[in-house]
Amino acid sequence: MAYNITLIKGDGIGPELAQAAKMCVEATGVKVVWDEVEAGIDVMAKEGTPLPERTIESVRKNKLALKAPVTTPVGTGFRSVNVALRQVLGLYACVRPCKSYEGVRSKYRNIDLVIVRENTEDLYAGIEFKQGEEKTKKLIDEISALGGKKILPDSGISIKPISIQGTEKIVTYAFEYARKHKRKKVSAVHKANIMKFTDGLFLEVARNVAKKYTDIEFNDVIVDNMCMQLVQKPELYDVLVLPNLYGDIISDLCAGLVGGLGVAPGANIGADSAVFEATHGSAPKYKGLNKVNPTALILSSVLMLEHMGELEAARKLEAAVAAVIKEGKRVTYDMKPDRNDPTAVGTREMAEEIAIKANSKF
Ligand code: NAD
To answer: pTM score, two decimals?
Structure first.
């Protein structure tokens, strides 16, 4: 049986990475019928929207997508395609495993952390009031009348909603993930000492959910302290569950622990569909140069294969990635000790090497 999977080609370095990851998935022997669709600034130039309805419909239908990075233009009327996709499809959990691979240059070894980030609420909900607009002035007056603190009249405002339902779902997902993957500990990360009604609620709900999972250790850590602890003693942590904004920031910190954005994969999971994508963005300056590291999107494909229940294919592909990185020969410039090393290969060549290994009896 062939799987129907949506391939969102993205923009910037996206299309090259999409082709690289597609080749590697096919090399595992899993049969896929790809529906190649567009999102981002290239399609926006043609169709006037960075997220065509056809792209959303394809993911709804197939329930599975591999997504290459997409640029979010700064200062235009368009919100992020990535945020919009997560909200439209209800992809409430963003899962980002951060694992050390031998051969990747990093100050740390043996890192094995999983970030579970809430994906739809918090300051990313897109409820914003622009400085100077009439409705912003009304809101400032309303808050003052309700007995809230005074807000300076020339302020812009972003709203941070965190709900019981949203938090229950994400914390339950983190515990279920921990159980399924034989993880020992879940840590909730927050700033409940300052934001009592949002982060405080997140913490209270997390503590309640944790009571149902007596087989898994639970603790909570304030986000600033967590940043320091992850840098000083990352081995203390296992699965981290966080509201949206902290999850975004800590994901990049953890990507840094394992050698950078080039090797950090991710999954966005909803009740109906799942979209797999790298943590990194579209790196527009490298567009079309066949230069950047394909590992993060290929490792995102490994997460997708696991999600599909194709465990042997996932194992083969991850082992192939690990072997190519460990050998350190047919790898991109960023994986070489000297970034100007002339023996570095391009995106396509590194992916081909991974595909050859994934295809062989490994
Ligand atoms: P970025 O991740 O695109 O690039 C930052 C730097 O990281 C690059 O200049 C490059 O040096 C390095 N890098 C990133 N990916 C790499 C790879 N595969 N191999 C080697 N080096 C790599 O971050 P940015 O410059 O802040 O963002 C560019 C655009 O991407 C923005 O529009 C941003 O909104 C968007 N973005 C999209 C996603 C997504 O699609 N999920 C995620 C993050 C950022």
So the answer is: 0.91
